[in-house]
Amino acid sequence: MTRIKCCGMTRIGDALLAVRLGADAIGLVFSARSKRQVTLAQARGIVVALPPFVATVALFMDDEASLVRQVLDEVRPMLLQFHGDESDGWCAQFGHPFLKAIAMGEGAAALPRLRDYPHATGLLLDGHAAGEAGGSGKAFDWSLLPGGLAQPLILAGGLHAGNVGDAVRTARPWAVDVASGVESAPGIKDPARLKAFIRAVRTVDAE
Ligand SMILES: O=C(O)c1ccccc1N[C@@H]1O[C@H](COP(=O)(O)O)[C@@H](O)[C@H]1O
């Protein structure tokens, strides 16, 4: 079964709906570079409202270590996700499981970076160019996803109900991650798009 992460949640109702429809994980963006940035209080409100067995993921992009520590203390996410130029050692300093996003905008030229994060719990391949923020809606060539890596791969970037089925069939990732493809505006999830996205993934899983 392909795990599904819905990212960029800013409202409790959207997060609960995503979980009710079948999402496995909820992403909360703390980077000031995001149009989906949440405050600590907003994030805490979402995390405490969730039912058991839903993974919570806190996203950062070249942020201060003090912010990451504050989020760990006050929001208590299950996973961290780093989207910037952070090194493996920097990400690992918190002693907390983390995902490292790899910008796939340069295509195959980005693949050697997949070996740079041996401490990551998983690698998230996103469609944007290096240095750009995620949540951009940009896809990449999914056939580039390599097999044989030790870590689970999470496919992200420009996914929506109309293309996620092909993406899963092509890449067979551990999980998919979506932000803009299930929104009506940044940070505002669209119930019909959420439902169609999760249904499209589950349809391919059942093939
Ligand atoms: O969502 C954001 O605003 C964001 C900002 C900074 C770093 C990462 C961000 N989001 C991540 O990007 C993927 C892909 O987004 P999209 O589906 O292409 O819109 C998203 O799932 C988040 O993990």
TrEMBL record:
Residues 5-199 form the N-(5'phosphoribosyl) anthranilate isomerase (PRAI) domain. Keywords: Amino-acid biosynthesis, Aromatic amino acid biosynthesis, Isomerase, Tryptophan biosynthesis. It is an enzyme of class 5 (isomerase). SUPFAM superfamilies: Ribulose-phoshate binding barrel (SSF51366). One of its GO terms (molecular function) is phosphoribosylanthranilate isomerase activity. It holds the Pfam family PRAI. It catalyses: N-(5-phospho-beta-D-ribosyl)anthranilate = 1-(2-carboxyphenylamino)-1-deoxy-D-ribulose 5-phosphate. Pathway: Amino-acid biosynthesis; L-tryptophan biosynthesis; L-tryptophan from chorismate: step 3/5. It comes from the Bacteria. Its EC number is 5.3.1.24. InterPro entries: Aldolase_TIM, PRAI_dom, RibuloseP-bd_barrel, TrpF_fam. Belongs to the TrpF family. This is N-(5'-phosphoribosyl)anthranilate isomerase. It comes from Rhodanobacter soli. The lineage of its organism: Bacteria, Pseudomonadati, Pseudomonadota, Gammaproteobacteria, Lysobacterales.
